[in-house]
Amino acid sequence: MVSSFEDISRIKLMIDHAIGELSGVDVQRRPQIGGMIEVPAAVELAADLASELDFISIGTNDLIQYSLVVDREDSRMTSPRDAYHPAILRMLLRTVSAVHSAGKEVSVCGEMAARPDLAAFLVAIGVDALSVSPRVIPELKQALASVHLKPLALAASTIAACRHGAEVELALRAFLTAVPLESGSADRIN
Fold first, then answer.
1. In whole angstroms, what is the distance from residue 78 CA to residue 80 CA?
2. Helix H or strand E segment including 91
3. Which of 19, 54, 105, 169 is the S-S candidate for 32 at Cβ 3.0 to 4.6 Å?
4. Mind listing the pLDDT tens digit for each residue in 36-89?
5. Is residue 117, in this structure, part of any structural domain at all?
6. Which residues have CB under 8 Å from 150's CB, separation 6+?
7. Residue 176: which of 123, 128, 127 has the closest Cα?
8. Cα–Cα distance measured from residue 134 to residue 99, given in angstroms and rounded to the nearest whole number
9. What pLDDT digit, counting tens, does each position of 98-153 carry?
10. Is 35 helix (H, G, I), strand (E, B) or coil?
11. 148: left (phi over 0), alpha (psi -120 to 50) or beta
12. Its pTM surpasses 0.90
């Protein structure tokens, strides 16, 4: 979890120090270093952070918690619809765009990636990889296999511009219930 450029500089120094203490020829001297976008400050600095890291992952559980000031452990303080909050979708759009502009890959982990309609949104906006628990893979794969990806990608900004989470949810679900494409279509996820 990073929130500033200084976090990355400090962690890189710690890694360099730890590597320097290792001996042997088989020591990886330049490991891949990534960062988690989990707080609003990191969203705003995504381009800067991506320029110094090898990859970025967006932790949606924490991003939702810290952005919407909800307590994931207290069901009275959270809603299943929090993931559909327009501000969250807008942050995701900005982050993916910034990371890709820096020429880096971006993945998403968290419960958001396990929900078929939200996973479709994530793939449509260019997320390179989704990290989900193995138990949801079959259902998620089946749902994503029939998503009309190009229309959803074109509609992503409009969906994120919705004013209410309920509107976002309805719009996304419409893409999952659309008539499946013929096999071999270029805008289908396989």
1. 7
2. helix 86-101
3. 54
4. 999 999 999 999 999 999 999 999 999 999 999 876 666 655 666 789 999 999
5. yes
6. 186, 187
7. 123
8. 26
9. 999 999 999 999 999 999 999 999 999 999 999 999 999 999 999 898 888 899 99
10. strand
11. beta
12. no
**Residue 188 has what DSSP assignment?**
B
Q: How many domains does the chain have?
A: 1
Contact between residue 65 and residue 38 where contact means Cβ atoms under 8 Å apart: no
Residue 14 lies in domain: 5-176
For residue 190, being part of any structural domain is answered with no
CATH number of the domain that residue 83 is part of? 3.20.20.60
Residue 181 lies inside a defined structural domain of this protein: no
In a domain, 187, yes or no: no
Beta strands 129-131 and 34-37 are unpaired
The sheet with strand 105-109 has its strands ordered as 34-37, 55-59, 105-109, 129-131
Cα separation, 36 vs 9, in Å, equals: 15
Helix, strand, coil tally for the chain in percent (to 5): 60, 10, 30
Between CA 190 and CA 176 the distance in angstroms is 14
Task: Report the alpha-carbon distance of residue 137 to residue 54 in Å, rounded.
Answer: 26
Q: Which residue has the tokens 């939200």?
A: 118
Sign of CA dihedral 31, 37, 39, 40: positive
